[in-house]
Design brief:
mainly alpha
């Protein structure tokens, strides 16, 4: 399980996402580059804010039943859905609907990625089911935003080649850890504003 869960660590997926954004921008598919940037920042930002605010305010955490939404699960869903989107171009035969061509397949792959990584997080005792579901919802939402914003690739862009190059960039980072949880715990203990507005109960 540790081998599986380490695939979705931010130390691996952040370089991968950064490589995708850079490659798409350089190749001229700038709309997709911006879509990746927006969705990735949105997903990781939502997870970091969620972890910090729920960790700082036990009343909120008790109300929603989540203390630390799973960042691994969210990131795995976004990257899984993004890979599916890139690998599926052209989006499908003529006549199929927008949803069938653009959203259904990436969201299905994103859900499978979230299930695989989320299960590993629960099995390792790092998150409970509610926290994994919260992370999956964030990741699936980010995937939907990505697919809708990306648009069609230019004729000179090979999305599959972009994914292979991005994976090659991320591979050397496998097994490393960012330590985001420790940083958030330090911020909570230090009482940094605005986390200090809602003390841990």
């Amino acid at each position: 399980m540790r081998i599986l869960t380490d695939v979705a660590d931010a130390a691996v997926l952040l370089p991968c996402a950064a490589a995708i954004v850079a490659l798409l921008f350089l190749l001229g598919w700038r709309r997709a580059a911006l879509a990746w940037l927006i969705s990735a920042c949105g997903v990781w930002g939502a997870i970091i804010i969620g972890k910090a605010m729920l960790g700082a305010c036990s009343a909120w955490a008790d109300a929603v039943g989540v203390r630390s939404p799973s960042g691994h699960t969210a990131a795995a869903a976004l990257l899984g859905g993004g890979v599916a989107m890139m690998a599926a171009w052209p989006p499908g035969p003529a006549g199929t609907t927008f949803v069938a061509r653009r959203l259904a397949w990436p969201l299905f792959v994103a859900a499978c990625a979230a299930l695989a990584i989320g299960s590993s997080r629960v099995a390792l005792g790092l998150h409970d089911v509610a926290e994994v579901i919260a992370g999956a919802v964030v990741g699936l939402s980010g995937t939907a935003v990505l697919v809708i914003l990306a648009g069609l690739p230019p004729a000179n862009v090979s999305p599959r080649a972009v994914m292979v190059l991005a994976a090659a960039v991320a591979l050397p980072f496998y097994g490393r850890h960012v330590g985001a949880e420790q940083t958030i715990r330090w911020a909570l203990q230090a009482g940094i504003w605005p986390l200090s507005l809602c003390r841990i109960g």
